[in-house]
Amino acid sequence: MQLRSVMTFSDIPPMSVILGNGGSQAFLQTLNSGYSGSSIFGTARDMFGDIHNKFVREVVEPARQAIQRVRDTIKVYDDPDFNTIRSLTKIDDLANVPPMMHLPILTYGPVRKLLLEGRISGYGYDVNSIPEEDVFGRLIDNGRVDMGKWIAEGADFKHLPDIISEVHPLTDPDLSEEQLEAIENTRKLIDKVLSDTTKDPTNINDDRG
């Protein structure tokens, strides 16, 4: 019987071998090269196929997925729109949400309700840290007249209000009309996600609880 020495840290291939273009095959070849006589994986797959598959499934693939998430995050940080308020109009846009859009989304009534119920990730925010008032919704609605509500209350188009009021506390964020429109467009997308899918709008790769 031949005893082999224990693999040392110097025997472990670099992460680039595991996660680079070569993928799992390059990693396996690196492991095999350190063991003369027979291959621990690959050519002995008829004997160790289950071990090989489990290793790839439980070690290599999760590592590759983790590094891909890091790469995706880096791309977001490199994006000039990373920390801006902008319209999110496609479900794919919710995979990389600018941090400046977090509160406009989390303070939206339907989203806040889901966060309070513990059914969404909420970008990792503590629900108690989310402002109770939907400031962004108020700013969007400032100066507007809800015609449907107006008519439902017994008025008609001939009797519009003489004065339309707006509320602007000094603590309000200073947002342009374009930014408010971007938030409104994003909330319309959130409505579509909630009505048409089971996805978590704050973590679009997962379902709501």
Which features does this protein show?
209 residues; mainly alpha; 2 domains; two-stranded antiparallel sheet; 8 helices; 2 strands
SSE string:
HHHHHHHHEE
Q: Kindly state the mean pLDDT as a whole number?
A: 75
Distance between the termini: 54 Å
Query: Spatial order of the strands in the main sheet?
Result: 1-2
Q: What gyration radius follows from the Cα positions, in whole Å?
A: 27 Å
Largest sheet: 2 strands, antiparallel
Can you count the helices? 8
Total number of strands:
2
Shape call: elongated
- The helix-and-strand class reads mainly alpha
The helix fraction, in percent, is: 40-55%
Question: How would you sum up this structure, described in words?
Answer:
The protein folds into two domains: 9-78, no CATH class; 91-207, no CATH class. Mean pLDDT is 75; it is low at 1-13, 15-23 and 35-42. The protein is mainly α and 209 residues long. The chain is 46% helix and 3% strand. It contains eight helices and two strands, in the order ααααααααββ.
